[in-house]
Amino acid sequence: MTISLTQKDNLELWVEAAKNRVPKRAREPFESLFEMPKIRGKGYARSIEVHPKLVISISDYENHEDALVKIPTWDHPVQFGVLLSGTVGDSQGQYFGERYMLISGSGVQRGWTAEYRRGERILGVNIEMPPEMLATFFFGEDGHIPSELGFLAKGNDWQTLLYLETNLATQTVARQIIHCPYKGIMKRIYLQTKALEMITLQLTPILADQGSLQSSSRLKTSSITRIHYAREILQSRLENPPSLPELGQMVGASDRTLQRGFRQLFGMTVFGYLTDKRMERAEQIFRQGDVTVAEVANQVGYSHLGHFAIAFKRKFGITPSECLAGQKSLSGL
Asked: What pTM does this model have?
């Protein structure tokens, strides 16, 4: 059974649960604790304002059933997220968790559907702030947001959404945030420090890539932003992706700039990146079960089963049929 909710319905359930539960004293004046609605599952979400408008959210819960929550188009803040356990999928085949952490810039977020798996523990940390807060901690010479971080502040434009490979250092900081050893003002100071550390660790590979591109290929920050936007488009259209010329027109970059940028930022060609994400999505669908190889191939944009099988085996070391039969893949997922 799958529960389907709108974001409004979901929030109302959480609010109702807060009204009906036995009141509990908040751990700190700047901290709020919310229990998960019993109809949804068990666990909690904790919200801690460590600095005016800088909020850390800690989640630890699991769903009784598979759940879909429809998120409308809205004005999104800047968000940095790390999951230590579980995954949150979306309708475009992207998964936050497992091997990926999340950076979500401010701007207009496209409507999407969040997917939660039954019985899977969601344990993680999110840091949220309005875009102007970036200038408080990472200010340029003029006191404004430095140009290198401009991709995180899109105003009325579509937001930047990045899924980055996670690493041990970032996961360690997330655990330290969850298991903060301090109370009172020391807790707030500690969590401020750890929030900035987590943000820095997540931004480091992006800023390093920008520096590499600008020094060796002379690409401007605007070009790097276009390359990241091109990646977002490919991620959202795995089944029916645009051609390279069409992609270039959509983001305002030449074919050559896209190819060079993808190689330096992501270590592969545009087509290689698309194939890699298609295969990851295919394996995720196989693990959910109750599908055929042909159905999965079609869902990730392959009309030729032979081509799909070759690409899948090259990625994971086993055939789609073997994966469907439950054989362990080489991806380690």
From this structure: 0.65
